[in-house]
Amino acid sequence: MKTIFRNFRLIDSTQDTVGTVLVTDCGTIGAVITDTQAKLPDVYRIFDGGGRLVLSPAFVDMHTHLRDPGFPEKETLESAALAAAAGGFGTLVCMANTKPVIDNLALAQLLKQRSDVLGIIDLYPAMALTHALEGQELSGITESLPDTIRLLSEDGKDIYDDALFLAALQAASRADKMVSCHCEAGGESAAVARAITLGKKAGCRIHIAHVSTQAAVATIRREKSKPDARLSCEISPHHCALTQKDARKLGAETFGLVAPPLRTEDDRRAIKEGLCDGTINVIATDHAPHTSSDKEAGSPGFTGLETAFAVCNTVLVRENHISPQKLSDSMSAEPARLLGFSDRGRLASGLYADLVVLDPEQQRTVNPALFYSRGKNTPFAGRTWYGVVLLTMHRGRIVYES
User: Where does 189-258 show beta strands of DSSP type E?
Assistant: First the structure.
C-alpha cells in the first residue's frame, strides 16, 4: 500500500532534517523529499509528523537470543518477532544456543523460512562454530554457506583450544563470513586480544560482542588504528546504562546477572567514549529472555528488544554523548553494513521501507507485564526513559503501532 510520511524529522546516519518519505506499494522507499513546497502525489495513506516526530530506518540487531527452537517457556520466534517490531527492529541476527543447536545449514534455513512466512522481521540465524557448541569439532561451517548465514558465533562460549579456534576462523575466512566472539575466558581484555591475534592469522573478519571494559576498549582502539585491521565490535544498552551497583541492587547472582557482568562507572564511561570516537561500531541488544525461575537460579541475561531505543536515547543522546544521527548509525546503518546489507539501514530511495516512527521526547515507564517478549527479566522495570516507538514498518507494511 502506498504511504506518505509527511512533515517528519528524518534522521539516519547522514541526515537530520524535516522532510517527507514516500513508500511504494512494492515495499520500498520511493523518494525522500526535503523540499517542503514539493507537490505530493495522491496516495491512500498519509502520516503527518507535525515536524516533531522522527522517522528513521528500522533498527538492525546483530545479537539476539530467540530461544527457538527448544525453549518456548523463554521465547518463541513469534513472541520475539513481535517484541522486535515493538522495539523498532526490522532485522535480527539470532544466536545458535537453541535446542537443537543451530550448527548446520538445514536448521538455520528452517528457522529463517519460518520467519519469512511470519513476515514481521527479517531473521538471519548465526551458525555455531563447533558441533552442538561443545568446542570439540567444527560444525557445518566447512560447507558452502549462502547469504542466509551472515554471521558465525560460538556465542556464550569461548573455544579454549587455540588450534580448533584457528581452524574455525580459517573456515570462516574461506566462506567470507564474519565471526562474532564472546570474549570472557581468561578475562575480557585477554580474550579480546586472543581473538584478534588468531583472527589476523586466519585472515578472518572478527566482531567482538558486548564490549564492557575500559581495557578491552583500549585494546580494540589500538588494533583498529592499524592499516590491516579487520575488526568491529558492539556494546549493549544495559552496559551503557548500568553498573555493578545496579547489579547488586537487583541481585548480583540472580536478576542482576548478565554475561559479561555489569562493570564499574569507569568502564561504562569508557564504552561510551569508544562509541563517540568510532572505536565501537554497533549497539546490539544481546536480548536474552529467561523465566523468573531461570533468573532466580542464576541464568545470565536480560531481555532487551523493547527497551533498547529508549535506554540509548536517554543515556547517550539526551546526555549529549552522541547525536541522534550517530545513534541511528550505530543501531541501523553500521550493523547493516557489517552484515553486508546494502538494501536497508538508511533513508534513501530504492531501499526497503523498513522504517520506525519515534517520539524521542515522550517519557514512558518500563512495565515488563506489557512486553510482547515472554522474557520479563529486564533490569529497567519501573524506570522511566525518554523515547517511544510509535510505529514500525517492515517492507512497507505496518507490523507495530502503539
Answer: 206-208, 231-235
